[in-house]
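It is worth pausing here to work through a concrete case rather than discussing structure prediction in the abstract. The textbook approach is simple: state the sequence, then state the predicted structure, then interpret. We follow exactly that order.
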Amino acid sequence: MVDWISLSIPFAYLGILVGSLATFSSLYRKRKAAKSLSLEPWFPPHLQRDIYLSLLHLEPEPGKEKSPTVPDGVLKAALLQRAVEDIKRILEIRSAKQALSNLLQRGSVGDDLWQRFQRAEKEVEAELRDVVEEANALQANWGQTIFQSANEMHHNAILRAKLNDIQAKGKRDREWWDQEKATIQSNFMKELGEDEKENAKPAATSGADKAASDEDAVLVEGGGPAASGVSSGSKGAGKKRKGKK
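Step two, the predicted structure:
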């Protein structure tokens, strides 16, 4: 005779084990999902996406039943700006993934940061699919080329920003050089004036000395008081000698 009670005990044990594991797994997933939602997002709010959605779903004005129609060109431009922002986020995800995975393997960063990154990566993938669907809805097969156009716009914006920085730097350098040039010129003029003053003093001294020497020469040549006294003395001596004779 089969003992059903002894056979039911192992099955009951397995059922209890499987049920406890399922309950633990469910609670763990819910807690993990709640924790991931409480984490700070990797990217800031997607402003371009909000603008596009607000244009796409405009509410009617007070007193009117129909909402205003937005031209397709405006919607395409808003969607293109949304795709440009997505390109920026894709490039940031690609550049940070390898470095972050290496830091995670070394234990330099925690699991919270890796969960934030993974959630941001999934959000970007969902955003790309949404943009492609919206582009195909606005224009047939536009979803295949919208990100190519957005990538070109992104690179043009980078080049324009670099060009503006170079022009601004050139303007600052020009102003600095003008100031330095004016300072150098003023210092040079001051030094030149001081040199002229120093050169003028020896010239004046030599001129005075020359004038004094000219006066002495004139006195000697013209027979001054000393010369006249000598000549009169010699004449008197001659007369005395004649009288003795």
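Step three, interpretation. The radius of gyration is 52 Å. The helical segments are 4-38, 47-56, 72-106, 111-138, 146-222, 225-244.
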